[in-house]
Amino acid sequence: MPFAFLDLDLLEQNIRKVVALAQGKRVRLASKSLRSVAVIRRILEADPCFQGVMCYTAQEAAYLASQGFDDLLIGYPTWNEQDIVAIARATAAGTHITLMVDSTEHVKRIETVAARFGISFPLCLEADMSMDLPGFHFGVWRSSVRTLEQARLVIERILASPHVWLDGLMGYEAQIAGVGDNFPGHKIKNAIVQMLKRRSIHEILQYYSSGWICWGCYSAMLRDWLRTGTADR
């Protein structure tokens, strides 16, 4: 049987720090980093700013729904029909579960199951936040939606269906949040990565100011980056 030891005092300190940094904004927990139902429940009950859970898989979302959790977001697109069926059953039982999509094919597959169960699925459209340079892709290959036109096609497909509706937009700037740029003895590499991050942040902010893309998970890191120009996480 697996066991975990957790310093509850440090957990409470982390909770208070996040609440202070949130400044009234809502914070969604990521279950990929919190592998305990009891801990997830404790954090959600600690302060009203914590709302909902981003789940690692559809089966995990269905399990959390069975444990009484609501406002669940699946962090990655779901293709397996039985997984979508599990979410449909939880949705029919009254749990709000948002499925991730990044193509019209995802929308078609999900609405087929939704029609069978007589429900309407909330969907979240994930956009690619990486940056392409000549001969170099700076970021991760996470979404097929890379342009406004591609996003428009998926959104129009969602709006045309009675069995799905657009609940939100998501983007993960992995090239900013997940790449270190302050390693001792690597000044040239650090400088190149920092330059690429500055350029990537500029492009993301252009989309953000247009009202099309917003992000939440790494807004604090972006703030630090804009202030100091470095990120050693």
Query: What is the average per-residue confidence, as pLDDT, rounded to a whole number?
Result: 85
Spatially, the strands of the biggest sheet line up as: 1-2-3-4-5-8
Q: Which structural class do the helices and strands define?
A: alpha/beta
Number of domains: 2
CATH class of the largest domain: Alpha Beta
What share of the residues does DSSP label as strand, in percent?
A: 15-25%
What is the terminal-to-terminal distance? 32 Å
SS summary, helix count: 9
- The residue fraction in helices comes out at 40-55%
What would you report as the Rg, rounded to the nearest angstrom? 19 Å
CATH architectural designation of the largest domain: Alpha-Beta Barrel
H and E string:
HEHEHEHEHEEEHEHHH
Shape: globular
Please give the number of β-strands.
8
Tell me about the largest β-sheet.
6 strands, parallel
Low-pLDDT ranges: 209-233
* CATH topology-level fold name of the largest domain: TIM Barrel
CATH homologous superfamily heading of the largest domain:
Alanine racemase
Describe this protein's structure:
By secondary structure, the protein is an alpha/beta fold. It has 2 domains: 8-174, Alpha-Beta Barrel (TIM Barrel), CATH 3.20.20.10; 175-233. It is built from 9 helices and 8 strands. The protein has helices at residues 8-22, 37-46, 58-66, 81-92, 104-117, 148-159, 174-177, 187-209, 219-228, and strands at 27-30, 50-55, 72-77, 97-101, 121-127, 131-133, 136-138, 164-171. It has a 6-stranded parallel sheet with strand order 1-2-3-4-5-8. The protein has a two-stranded antiparallel ribbon with strand order 6-7. It is globular and about 60 Å long. The model is unreliable at 209-233 (pLDDT under 50).
